[in-house]
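Section handout, structural biology tutorial.
Before the tutorial, make sure you can parse a SMILES string by hand: atoms, branches in parentheses, ring closures as digits. In the record below the ligand is zinc ion, and the chain has 513 residues. In the tutorial you will relate the predicted structure tokens back to the input. Do not try to memorize them.
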Amino acid sequence: MTHIRNAVIYCRVSSARQLKEGHGLSSQESRCREYAKHKNYCVEAVFYDEGVSGGMVERPAMLELLDFIADRKPEETIVLIDDISRLARGLEAHLQLRTTIQQAGGKLESPSIEFGTDSDSMLVENLLASVSQHQREKNKEQVFNRMQARVKSGYWCFCPVPGYKYDKLPEHGKILVKQEPVASIIREGLEGFASNRFETQTDIKRFFESFEAFPTDKKGRVSHQRVADILTKPLYAGYLSVPKWNIYMHPAKHEALISFATHQAIIDKIEKAARKPQQSFISDEFTLRGHISCSCCNQPMTAGMVKGRSKKYPYYWCSQKGCEKYGKVIKREAIDRDFNELLQSLRMPKDIFFLAQEALKMLWEKKRSNSSMDLGIVNQEKTKIEQKLDKLVDRLLDTDSPTLIKTYEKSIKQLEKQKVLLDEKLKIGRKRQPSFERAFKTALVWLTNPAVLWDTGCLADRKSLLKVLFTDNLRYDKESGFLNRPIAQPIRLCGLVGDGGTKMVEGAGFEPA
Ligand SMILES: [Zn+2]
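Predicted structure of the complex:
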């Protein structure tokens, strides 16, 4: 023993858990140091890679190590590793790294195995690398099985979605809980989309972006994909779907933000929109387009910018060929001004407001008592569906035909969906209906002055206001203004007719003398 050989140590852990469980860097290092002492090597440097995955060949400390030993060439440096899985997890990556180390002037040694160049040593080494790869895949499988079992028992186990965060609760373990205020914003958005308060996905996007608390990208935007995900995730209705594991509509243990019926309404709306080409005539500049008819032929007028001598001007006009007023333009300003006047007149006097509130309250209470009677019918329906399901499952078990199996499975899926809906109806029915105040108060408040909502509202609000206030198109004449006031019955009952005089109470079809 005249010559003391030089060595370096390489240590690696891939996760914080390994660090904790004693496969940590220092224990690897001390095993290697012991081995070096035993072999009478001089340890010149120790290289650590933390938190890098075993599958990756590029690792910062490994690269440093390669540089280090390459500098010492032609002298050979011993590279010590504690155990073969520290080098690389896969067989291929292992062989690649081993060759690279050799080429850089290193010689691998380990306290746990002998790296040799003879065929026996190579076989052992390759076997060990394969075993370590197998172990890693096995671990993956186990994690996967655990996750699947977790989802099947009703718990989400992926990244939390917006509006939820993970919490540890004694009887559940790790479970999604609402994260306010985002949860409430999402609920309002989803319910608004289902009820057409927000007509398009872009409306929802804008709605989300209007809240500072809502998570956005660096530019303060919520992506269309994010909006689409939020709209279609059954998780918000209290169900889990993981298509890649063939898990569909599994009841979840976390608290839902919306009802299943709302979720279904959203899905239906999106599917319907996908079938129908987007109507593009709704634009901010001509909010009333589609709601104003020609005074002569009663067909909806079209609108657009018409070129004047030097500029373009906004106009409405009748586009019915053969109509007396065909192509005769009316300035947009004129119609907008008259419409604003009309809205101003639709203001509910305070005393009538209270009367209307009482009347609606009575209707609401009546509806509430009726709904308890409907529960019996829902229960009967549910029993019928359950019987049908049982029969289908029997038939499914009896058949070997792939076509029939497919058909049965489709029907079963459909029936299960219906069952979920009925279950929910029953649940809601048993719960108390929301109080009158919660259901109608806001609606009533803006009905006291619709013009305010019109002025401040976005396009979607304006559109829904038009739908709520009027049962029909407004007929407009260039000389006489609006010819009719097709005010919706409930609004008229509420006394939502103002200064226009008592004649207005006649409502639809009213023509000025
Ligand atoms: Zn016309």
